[in-house]
């Protein structure tokens, strides 16, 4: 615990096992390392959790080090608005920003949603992720999941994707489907790939091409809305995404916290972009502020805690994939 004034900051790494394994086009995970930041003042402790953005080169160790480096500034009174300028976007800023929201809620005895000027949050229907695998495995996973979750998100890999989606539809004939290509359609005919998914009722396609190669979507007319994930981190990316994507996926770890996420959502709406709010693998503490950012989003994918073998106590409550606002004992 580093301390130089009325506030003190501590950061540590926690390891949480995944239920089975979580597989996407880039590889499989059997656990996730999260970074917990705690900011203490006046007998109260605000908490924030973040997961490293691996495709940015972040690690749990680098995120913890970034957070710890801000201890002096936090003790000197750095607030959320100045935090945006003091730190780059990313997981470390998210953990600190979330802890500051939580601390202010505790110090003022006012919920975070009220501090943010939001309406009282309500329950949200979240997607449940079907990991990348062979079609038969994905079909079986979808059949089991659809008995509980009405909205499924499929991880894709490029080659063989149509077979995967067809298999999932067989396993879950009544479920809503969204798919995440995870940049794997670079070099493929995106419009044709999307058209091939139309018979299966897919309603959204995330990140078909590699981030930074979004120009490949110029002139592409997709029959299914395309959503920027890796291509949209914060407000600085909106100009590049507008006109190429119909939606953006907001994740607090990418944006660098709830403060930026709320501003990003507002600006995206002015550009006519639809909103999706997602998450990294995380516990309920990481999901709690995302629930505020996700109010009013067309698609919500905050199933991170559901993919873990264990969660925090108390957790965010899920009922058939519907996430309820976080209990005050958890966050905000």
Automatic annotation (TrEMBL):
<dbReference type="Pfam" id="PF13378">
    <property type="entry name" value="MR_MLE_C"/>
</dbReference>
<dbReference type="GO" id="GO:0046872">
    <property type="term" value="F:metal ion binding"/>
</dbReference>
<dbReference type="InterPro" id="IPR029017">
    <property type="entry name" value="Enolase-like_N"/>
</dbReference>
<keyword id="KW-0460">Magnesium</keyword>
<dbReference type="InterPro" id="IPR036849">
    <property type="entry name" value="Enolase-like_C_sf"/>
</dbReference>
<feature type="active site" description="Proton acceptor; specific for (R)-substrate epimerization">
    <location>
        <position position="155"/>
    </location>
</feature>
<feature type="binding site">
    <location>
        <position position="206"/>
    </location>
    <ligand>
        <name>Mg(2+)</name>
    </ligand>
</feature>
<dbReference type="InterPro" id="IPR034603">
    <property type="entry name" value="Dipeptide_epimerase"/>
</dbReference>
<keyword id="KW-0413">Isomerase</keyword>
<feature type="binding site">
    <location>
        <position position="180"/>
    </location>
    <ligand>
        <name>Mg(2+)</name>
    </ligand>
</feature>
<dbReference type="GO" id="GO:0016855">
    <property type="term" value="F:racemase and epimerase activity, acting on amino acids and derivatives"/>
</dbReference>
<dbReference type="InterPro" id="IPR013342">
    <property type="entry name" value="Mandelate_racemase_C"/>
</dbReference>
<feature type="active site" description="Proton acceptor; specific for (S)-substrate epimerization">
    <location>
        <position position="251"/>
    </location>
</feature>
<dbReference type="InterPro" id="IPR013341">
    <property type="entry name" value="Mandelate_racemase_N_dom"/>
</dbReference>
<feature type="binding site">
    <location>
        <position position="229"/>
    </location>
    <ligand>
        <name>Mg(2+)</name>
    </ligand>
</feature>
<comment type="similarity">
    <text>Belongs to the mandelate racemase/muconate lactonizing enzyme family.</text>
</comment>
<protein>
    <recommendedName>
        <fullName>Dipeptide epimerase</fullName>
        <ecNumber>5.1.1.-</ecNumber>
    </recommendedName>
</protein>
<feature type="domain" description="Mandelate racemase/muconate lactonizing enzyme C-terminal">
    <location>
        <begin position="135"/>
        <end position="227"/>
    </location>
</feature>
<keyword id="KW-0479">Metal-binding</keyword>
<dbReference type="InterPro" id="IPR029065">
    <property type="entry name" value="Enolase_C-like"/>
</dbReference>
<dbReference type="Pfam" id="PF02746">
    <property type="entry name" value="MR_MLE_N"/>
</dbReference>
<dbReference type="InterPro" id="IPR034593">
    <property type="entry name" value="DgoD-like"/>
</dbReference>
